[in-house]
Write a structure and sequence with these properties.
This protein is an alpha+beta fold and about 190 residues long. The protein contains 5 helices and 9 strands.
Length: about 190
């Protein structure tokens, strides 16, 4: 019985490596990875200010780790990755998605497509990428290319907690020029 109690107290402080509590982050530095995009199977996300490239193998292992931790009543047990898993199971060498929904305003979408009610076919997959993508970015397992300069970002980047309207809080993953390319909502306001 004593061994069981000791083991319980030993394991409680350890978090599953696949999960980061973004609400605890105020500011943190991270760096872009650099890997071979020809030999690796990759997932490319075109954002407004950056092109984010994930290895499909890293993405799949992170999704599996998150799924396994969901069985343990983790704080992110609500995450579902059905669309993402089915996309990864198609076994394409290169998968490319464009984020017209979360990075652009209604007026920008209206300018690009002629109406603001554009429905992004990749929206469901992009929604499932928020936390898993953030975990991989924070872990330095993602290659980030500046959209304007078309170069891999080599200098340090920051994650910063930001306050929004009516008490909403976000963490923003920022390029060196302070433009946010990935955003996770940590708490909603009123």
């Amino acid at each position: 019985m004593n061994k069981l109690i000791f083991l319980t107290f030993l394991l409680i402080p350890f978090r599953i490596f696949a999960q980061v509590n973004y609400d605890e982050i105020r500011s943190k530095v991270f760096y872009s990875a650099d890997f071979d995009t020809i030999d690796e199977s990759i997932l490319i996300i075109h954002k407004k200010f950056a092109i984010v490239i994930f290895k499909q193998s890293e993405m799949d292992s992170m999704v599996q780790a998150t799924r396994n931790s969901a069985d343990l009543e983790s704080f992110r047990s609500f995450e579902r990755h059905d669309h993402l898993v089915s996309l990864l199971n198609e076994n394409h060498q290169k998968i490319s998605l464009t984020d017209y929904w979360f990075d652009y305003s209604d007026s920008e979408r209206k300018e690009m497509f002629g109406h603001s009610n554009y429905s992004n076919p990749d929206k469901a997959i992009l929604e499932q990428l928020f936390f898993v993508g953030g975990d991989l970015i924070l872990g330095g397992k993602v290659m980030i290319i500046d959209s304007k300069e078309k170069k891999i970002v080599k200098s340090k980047m920051k994650i910063k907690r930001v306050k929004g309207l009516f008490g909403t809080r976000y963490v923003e993953f920022r390029l060196p020029n302070k433009k946010a390319f990935w955003r996770i909502t940590t708490s909603l306001g009123e």
